[in-house]
Structures are given as structure tokens and as C-alpha cells.
Amino acid sequence: MATVSIYGVTCTVNAVTTLVTSALLSTPCAVVFDAAGNLYTGQAGNNDVNILPAATATVFGVACTINTLETLLSSGLNLPQGLCFDTAGNLYTGNNTGASVKVLPKASGTIFGHTVVANTLYTLASSVTALEVVNIDATGNIWVLYSTGTKLGVIPVSTGTLFGVSVTANTFTTILSTGITQGIDLCIDAAGNVYIADYSANVVWVLPVATAPIFGVSCTINTLTSLGTFAHANGICMDAAGNLYVSCTTDLKVISKTTTTLYGVACTANVITILIATTRGHLGIDSAGNIYIGGSGALLVLAAAAWPPVPSYTGAASQAVAFATSASVPVSSAFLSFFP
Hints:
Mean pLDDT: 89
CATH superfamily: TolB, C-terminal domain
Low-confidence stretches: 309-340
Helix content: under 10%
Oligomer: single chain
CATH class: Mainly Beta
Strand order of the largest sheet: 3-36-35-34
Number of domains: 1
Largest sheet: 4 strands, antiparallel
Strand content: over 45%
Number of helices: 1
Distance between the termini: 29 Å
């Protein structure tokens, strides 16, 4: 069978391979990538953020060795849940018990109206209780599932209206407070539709920006709608073609945008299809189409045919996760799953 090398590990195409096993991977809560192809994971159990570097370099002031998992950040984190990047390369994380959204700036300057210092963690929003995940859309708005995943909030880049709710620039605002049972992960597509993996409700929700069918389901603007049953949906991400991937109890599923073959599996447009049996976890996807699954104590990858990926950002989480059409545009800012 065909193989590819991913972060120095030989992986079989269209199969799940264990990429890394380490005590550093306690409870991965995000898998995202920066423009250089470095992989980041948020570890709720260890209260830190780890990096798997694509090259030997200094990243956020930390000396990193190629293909070697190491701790990038630990001070100031309390159960970090979710990661994402903006187009400038700033890293955002949510803190569950710390009830806050924080940013690790790539350079000194102003972010969401706050003065920040390069490589120094800064709190952008506080009192965001029981935070589950953060992600970013193409406009640069930071989306948050919080209150044990029952509420959806946003830090908007500008004053206006989002999903029918008035928002003020740089001010955290609740967008949705009913309908979600236990949202664990989210991603956003290029149009701005928000997808939510609801673990307890066993569904994937979509919050649409317009009245139109999404994956064959009739959707009404600003109205939470189910896209189908997913047993204990735990992770979610989207690829550049608009296919939606969901990590469930014992398998990885996809809703394909078109009738096609994905990872060796025949898929029908708008039909939920099992891609492969595997452990559940938060998802990330790189620009080569490799899908990463953050499990307890291990990082897995479902390998596509090409490596290395074109440099891109994802926002994990989660990341999630679609890709920019150009290497100069972060994935997270292109399709927003960011894809955790």
C-alpha cells in the first residue's frame, strides 16, 4: 500500500497511524497548524500547549526541534480548550476553569483593542465560564462554545449584527443560549455557517447565515438546525472542498459535498458515511488533507496521498478546519473550523 512520511513517521495512505505517543498528550483538546506547518495541540489535563515542529526553529520564543513534540506554553493556562490562529499568526486559546479567552501574540501591537506584547499570553475576554472551544472565521471573529457547551458566543472584530444579534467590536457577546446540549467542538465554513458537534445530543448542528439547503437539509437563516445523528460527536472539521468530518464514539464520519471517493471510501453527496473505525477525539486537518485525531495519550493521523502540506493556518481545534486557497492565507481564516 502507498505510504507517506508525516512529521518523520511512515504512514499508510487511507489508514489511521499513531503519529505520536507521549505523556505530554494527556487530553488533547485541539489540533491546529500555523503557516510554517507546525502542529499545535492544547492539553487540558496538563494545562499546556504543545508543538510538533515541521522544522528546527524558534517559535514564539521557544527553541524547537523538527518532529519532536515539546511544550510550547504552560504558564497562565487553566484547562486550555481549543486553539486557532488568525491571519497574522497570533495563537488563541480558551481556558475552561480559567473562564477566559487568551491570545499568544506573534508580534507586539493591538489585538481586539488590547495592547499586547510578542510571545506574552494576554487575556482578551474573562468570565467566559466552562469554556469548551474557540475558533475563528474568515472575518476574524473569535467564536466560543461555553457554559459547558450550551452557549455560543463571539468576540467580534467590528460593530454590527451577527446571526441577528447586535454586537460591539472587541466585546464578548452571547449569540445563542438555547438549543445546544453539550457542544464540544465547532468549525465555520467559508460562507460563515457555524457547525457544532453536540456530544450529549448526538447531533451536528448548523447555524446558517442564510435560508438555503446545507448538505441537503433545509435551513432557515439564524436558526439552529440538525444535520443528522452522530453518536457522541466529539470533533469536527471541514476540508477545502467543503466536506464535513465528524469524530464519533468508534468511528470517523463524513458528509460529502459531492458524490466522490474520500480516503478510499465511496461517498454519496449529503449522505453521512463512515470513513474508518477509530477512537474519538478533537479533529484537525492540514492542507494536504491529512486528518489528525487527538486521543488520550496519542495523536493519530488519517493520511492522504500528499505530504508535506502547503503552509496554512488552522484553528482548532480545530480546529478545525478548512484550508486557504493560497499559502499566504491561513486556513482558519479561509474556512473556519479552524478547524479543530
